Amino acid sequence: MQLFYQPELINGINTLDSEESRHAIKVLRRKEGDAIDLVDGHGKFYTAEIRKADFRKCEFEIVSTKEEPKRNGFRHLAIAPTKNLDRTEWLVEKAVEMGVDRISFVLCQNSERTVLKTERLVKKAVSAMKQSLKATLPQIDEMMKLKQFISSCETAEKFIAYVDFDNPVHLKDCLKTEQHSIILIGPEGDFDPSELDFALESGFQKVSLGESRLRTETAGLAAVHLLNLFS
């Protein structure tokens, strides 16, 4: 199934943007009267029929609508972006394919990347959403300072992954079904001890992701996988 994305479907916009129109008409050679499948990023699938096969602004008419099945719980990943932006893009892509509801980026004392533009990351997320046949686009937040982010968290289950091989508490043993869960992943140099202390004082629980020391993006994906097992 080839999905097209139009986030304004809920507002009655029945045209594809220029990029999606070109792909539908020029690449896939869709014609007037052909059926296409769309998602709005808000949890709905649509079947439509092309009314005007214009590669600049393809017009369609909605034939049917279907809701994406609801999941239990809410999966929120907060992570320090990697120095190599390709790794962060890879993480966003794979996390969306696997299943995540929100991705937040945090600026830590040991962060090697201090500036992050999310526009390209959103495009990666849209592509991954369509690739994995999902209809909901995860929320992707602009980067904020770690302590500011921690202070804004009001979720029921709050975890911080920290490289501490003396910590026997694994994330998988702490998660509960049907909960709003958030997991914090630090930068390549991990969290500063003062940041860890602040998180713990703010209600976060220190957890392990296993015996191996993982790259930041690997740790993020491992955490997303575990969140999916309990949602």
Using the coordinates shown, work out and report the CATH topology of the largest domain.
Alpha/beta knot
| Percent of sequence in beta strands | 15-25%
Helix/sheet category: alpha/beta
The CATH fourth-level homologous superfamily of the largest domain:
SPOUT methyltransferase, trefoil knot domain
Number of domains: 2
What oligomerization state is this entry in?
single chain
Q: Please state the second-level CATH architecture of the largest domain.
A: 3-Layer(aba) Sandwich
How far apart the termini lie comes to: 26 Å
Largest sheet: 7 strands, parallel
What would you call the shape?
Answer: elongated
Radius of gyration: 20 Å
Q: How many DSSP E strands?
A: 11
CATH top level class name of the largest domain: Alpha Beta
Residue ranges: pLDDT <50 for 5 or more in a row? none
Report the order of strands and helices. Answer: EHEEEEHEHEEHEEHEH
Helix content: 25-40%
